[in-house]
Amino acid sequence: MFIRSLFLGALAGAVLGIGAASAQQKETLLESQESLYNNIYVYQRSPYVIMTFGHNKQLYTESVFDTGDDRVLPVPYTQFMTAALMYAGKVNSILEIGSGGGRIAWYLHRSLPNARVTSIELDPAVLALSRKYFGIRDEQNFDLEARDGRVFLSQSKDKYDIILIDAYRGPFVPFHLMTREFYQIVKDHLADGGVVAQNVDPNTMLFDSAVKTIGAVLPQIEFYKTSDGSDDNIVTVAYDGAERKADDLATVASERDKAYDLRYSLASMLAERKRVDINNTQAIDANAKVLTDDFAPVDALKSIEQHNRKMP
């Protein structure tokens, strides 16, 4: 789910980068719902369908769907989430935590139909709207499930070659998806050679702590900085074991660009790669703290349902 605070009037020009004239196109509210977790709005601004969540009188864009082509990823950071494809030792199973309108998961399913793609979304209403308006449907090797991501992983025995984390509610990442204990659960569900890609907002005070926390469990960290026309996003790729060298990544990127039906070239993305040393105080604040659960995991799991609900 895309994290960016924008008023809808600026959405097309700022988020989609389709120009000031397009921002004046007629916008139609297709449906709104007040779910247990979100105030959800679905708009149409041809050719796009846009899902937003309301928070403090602002609208946060969660997903953008090009109705003319279901393999277009209009928001740049979503394209770079697929950079994980060149890091994974193999690509047979992919898990996404934070589905939103399901655009990244669906793109990967359409591009790699033989890989098993599982997308987890907390809010059942969001999943229902993604099926209704965003071209998402149940197919072989593509599964949608309404669950909390941490609970799902804690109760699963499956392992994945790629785990994508893009779980936001408005401007916030749920606390239980930011801790060292959570990333340890994620690591435990990675197959050999597995990799994690996560959308991390660089404009939050917790950015340095978030990166340091990831690095406490998955020491190899690389950044892909993207721009949506109004601000920057950081896609963080993290993994265990030896560093993937640039030449090796280039070889894999070229091979998988040819092997898979990819709209967005992995080889082109590689040019944006930046290695991160979490011990380098010029890159990461030395005072940043590793985020941890402050109570027993069983209590954490019991509290998730209550925590996930909307604030009054």
Question: How can the largest sheet be summarized?
Answer: 8 strands, mixed
Low-confidence sequence ranges: 1-23
Mean pLDDT: 86
Question: How many beta strands in the DSSP annotation?
Answer: 13
Q: Which sequence of strands runs across the widest sheet?
A: 8-7-6-9-10-12-11-13
CATH topology term of the largest domain: Rossmann fold
CATH top level of the largest domain is Alpha Beta
Calculate the terminal CA-CA distance, rounded to whole Å. Answer: 22 Å
Order of helices and strands: EHHEEEEHEHEHEHEHEHEEHHEH
| Helical/strand content category | alpha/beta
Q: Give the strand content.
A: 25-35%
Report the total helices.
11
Q: Could you state the oligomeric state of the chains shown?
A: single chain
Silhouette: globular
From the coordinates shown, what is the CATH architecture of the largest domain? 3-Layer(aba) Sandwich
Signal peptide: 1-23
InterPro entries: PABS (IPR030374), SAM-dependent_MTases_sf (IPR029063)
Protein name: Fused MFS/spermidine synthase
Domain PABS: 1-255
Protein described:
This protein is an alpha/beta fold and 312 residues long. The protein folds into 2 domains: 5-66, no CATH class; 76-276, Rossmann fold (3-Layer(aba) Sandwich), CATH 3.40.50. Helices cover 29% and strands 28% of the residues. It has 11 helices and 13 strands. The strands form 2 sheets. It has an 8-stranded mixed β-sheet with strand order 8-7-6-9-10-12-11-13, with helices on both faces. It has a 5-stranded antiparallel β-sheet with strand order 1-5-4-3-2. Strand 7 (116-121), helix 5 and strand 8 (142-146) form a beta-alpha-beta unit. Helix 7 (180-188) packs across helix 8 (207-217). It comes from Bradyrhizobium jicamae. This is Fused MFS/spermidine synthase. InterPro entries: PABS, SAM-dependent_MTases_sf. Keywords: Polyamine biosynthesis, Signal, Transferase.
